[in-house]
Specification:
The radius of gyration is 20 Å and the shape is elongated. The strands form 2 sheets. A 4-stranded antiparallel β-sheet has the order 4-3-6-7. Strands 1-2-5 form a 3-stranded mixed β-sheet, with no helix packed on it. It has 2 domains: 1-30; 31-125, Cupredoxins -  blue copper proteins (Immunoglobulin-like, Sandwich), CATH 2.60.40.420. It has helices at residues 2-29, 76-81, and strands at 32-34, 59-63, 71-74, 90-91, 95-99, 103-108, 120-125. The chain is 27% helix and 25% strand. The structure holds 2-acetamido-2-deoxy-beta-D-glucopyranose and copper (II) ion (CU). The site of 2-acetamido-2-deoxy-beta-D-glucopyranose has 9 residues, from loops. This is Basic blue protein.
Length: 126
């Protein structure tokens, strides 16, 4: 009886340790990328993702002046045509952290003309 209880709690400890390792592992492997690097989120950022490997769970940090720019999560059509659908998620803190979902992630600035000037990023997260 007491032996059975002992091994049950040992099993609980093992499970807890495994969970901690899993959380730790994901933490170590999620990277944060500053969009546009030192230049920040601005015009002609569309080529910034080139040559980088992104993983689902990685975080994009958008640094910008919130009085002149924003970040809007859009779909492929919105990215291509530089339009944001009504109800699209708009970020405007000036230092937004956005976690990448698996697959394609598209962000534009929807201040007039900015996206057309390359203030847009398309990122594939594996
Ligand atoms: C940006 O997109 C949001 C969400 O679609 C919209 O409410 C807002 O009016 C847009 N801003 C501009 C400047 O187009
Ligand atoms: Cu802008």
């Amino acid at each position: 009886m007491s032996l059975g209880r002992g091994s049950a709690s040992q099993a609980m400890v093992v499970v807890a340790v495994l969970l901690c390792l899993l959380v730790h592992f994901e933490h170590v492997h999620a990277a944060t990328y500053t969009v546009g690097d030192s230049g920040g989120w601005t015009f002609n950022t569309d080529s910034w993702p080139k040559g980088k490997r992104f993983r689902a769970g990685d975080v994009l940090l958008f640094n910008y002046d919130s009085t002149t720019h924003n970040v809007v999560a859009v779909d492929r059509a919105g990215y291509s045509s530089c339009t944001s659908p009504a109800g699209a998620k708009v970020y405007n803190s000036g230092k937004d952290q956005i976690k990448l979902a698996k697959g394609q992630n598209y962000f534009i600035c929807n201040f007039s003309g900015h996206c057309a000037s390359g203030m847009k990023v398309a990122i594939n997260a594996v």
